[in-house]
From TrEMBL:
Is responsible for the charging of tRNA(Phe) with phenylalanine in mitochondrial translation. PROSITE patterns: AA_TRNA_LIGASE_II, FDX_ACB. It is found in: Mitochondrion matrix. This is phenylalanine--tRNA ligase. GO terms for molecular function: ATP binding; phenylalanine-tRNA ligase activity; tRNA binding. It comes from Castanea mollissima. Belongs to the class-II aminoacyl-tRNA synthetase family. Its EC number is 6.1.1.20. The keyword Protein biosynthesis applies.
Length: 432
């Protein structure tokens, strides 16, 4: 089950997702599509070039399944996937050996390969389109949980979504007989705009299943055996990534593990949440045909850890094609400190409006991202009040900044004008 402090996932105290198929051939787990774009799929070699490029706009191939734009951005009343999100499909930063996300993934692989030789199966190319059942039901997310809302999740249609977490593949892998596995992938969440939040990020989940032969000779019960093994494993991983650091375990609650824990390390003079984990709820194992087993699961957000290990100050940088960023990192070199190359100033613009009952901040951020893209650095609520008539006003400050160049006044003014128009027409608010 994957976690990130910056992005909500299934392991969190405050939210089930704080931070966070159907194809029968291969482990793609994609929903089968009735129609595909006629053009050729994205060649795999293009995904690994030093000068990384955006994916082909009309069709992609993920997990062995072709995905056309019309398959993701459907003419369906429940579809809320914008162009800015479709453009990130197929980028697969975690599969690039010279990218900080890929370097970190490989460092974690190295730990498991050394500590558990030939034990853990690794999956990093599973299709991000999954069913609602896989994304929520299979990991025991309550039917009324906020994470299922269209405000939080990207829906393709009423029954399929862009995965919110790599945990969406857990049940299928268990049913297919895998007992030790790591799943890494890009995940999607409608979210706020600031230096640590982005609607696409990367997670890794680890699962280990035990049989009665494993714990019966230990003299402890199955749950205690699994919990002890889990903590030993993850303490070793923390030492592998961060060196000899002080650690502490925090008891917490998740609906899919019991007991549940968070691991924190004392790093750079402060306590840092590294991951969430726990002993898998028996109901999940039972549904996967493993009634006599126990298991543990952990999850971590790769951006969260990479920002700390590489001193990367803004999550948008992970998506930069600027060679001043990409050239700083090398395969196998974990923890190279990023040298900032941009000191371009931000430009602030305020927007005020009377909200309605359906207004949400995530919807506002989607509008801003759709117009400004990664030029939007932050959207911050700076003032709100309710008048005598019961009408509520919000004032947001939008920070525009390029990581690569100075923005002109004309550019900023045009962006802000378009934001104002779209906020009013799409969100049905009244500008002030």
């Amino acid at each position: 089950m994957a976690i990130s402090h910056a992005h909500a996932t299934l392991f969190s105290r405050t939210s089930l997702f704080l931070s966070r198929n159907s194809c029968r051939s291969s482990l793609a787990f994609c929903i089968p599509f009735s129609t595909f774009a006629a053009s050729s799929s994205l060649p795999s070699d293009k995904l690994h070039r030093n000068k990384w490029r955006s994916p082909v706009a009309s069709v992609l191939e993920l997990g062995g399944v072709k995905i056309g734009r019309e398959d993701v951005m459907r003419d369906d009343p429940t579809n809320n996937v914008p162009d800015t999100i479709f453009s990130k499909l197929g980028m697969q930063l975690h599969r690039r050996d010279q990218h900080p996300i890929g370097i970190l993934k490989n460092a974690i692989y190295e730990y498991f390969d050394t500590s558990y030789p030939n034990k853990f199966d690794k999956f990093d190319d599973l299709c991000p389109i999954v069913t609602v059942k896989q994304n929520f039901d299979d990991v025991l997310v309550p039917a009324d949980h906020v994470s299922r809302s269209y405000n939080d999740t990207y829906y393709i249609d009423a029954q399929s979504v862009l995965r919110c977490h790599t945990s969406a593949h857990q049940a299928e892998l268990l049913r297919r007989g895998h007992t030790h596995f790591l799943v890494t992938g890009d995940v999607y969440r409608r979210d706020s705009i600031d230096s640590t939040h982005y609607p696409v990020f990367h997670q890794m989940e680890g699962v280990r299943v035990f049989s009665p032969d494993d714990w019966e000779a230990s003299g402890v019960d199955a749950t205690s055996y699994a919990a002890e093994d889990l903590k030993k494993c993850l303490e070793g991983l923390a030492n592998h990534l961060f060196g000899a650091v002080e650690m502490r375990w925090i008891d917490t609650y998740f609906p899919f593990t019991n007991p549940s824990f968070e691991l924190e390390i004392y790093f750079q003079e402060k306590w840092l949440e590294v991951l969430g984990c726990g002993v898998t709820e028996q109901e999940i194992l039972k549904r996967s045909g493993k009634t006599n087993n126990v298991a543990w699961a952990f999850g971590l957000g790769l951006e969260r850890l990479a920002m700390v290990l590489f001193d990367i100050p803004d999550i948008r940088l992970f998506w930069s094609n600027d060679e001043r960023f990409t050239s700083q990192f090398s395969k196998g070199q974990l923890g190279i400190k990023f040298k900032p190359f941009s000191k371009y100033p931000p430009c602030y613009k305020d927007i005020s409006f009377w909200i309605n009952e359906s207004f949400t901040e995530n919807n506002l951020c989607e509008v801003v991202r759709g117009i400004a893209g990664d030029l939007a650095e932050e959207v911050l609520l700076i003032d709100n009040f309710t008048n005598k008539k019961g009408m509520t006003s919000h004032c947001y400050r939008i920070a525009y900044r390029s990581m690569e160049r100075s923005l002109t006044d004309d550019e900023i003014n045009e962006l802000q004008w378009n934001v104002r128009e779209q906020v009013q027409s799409k969100l049905n608010v009244v500008l002030r």
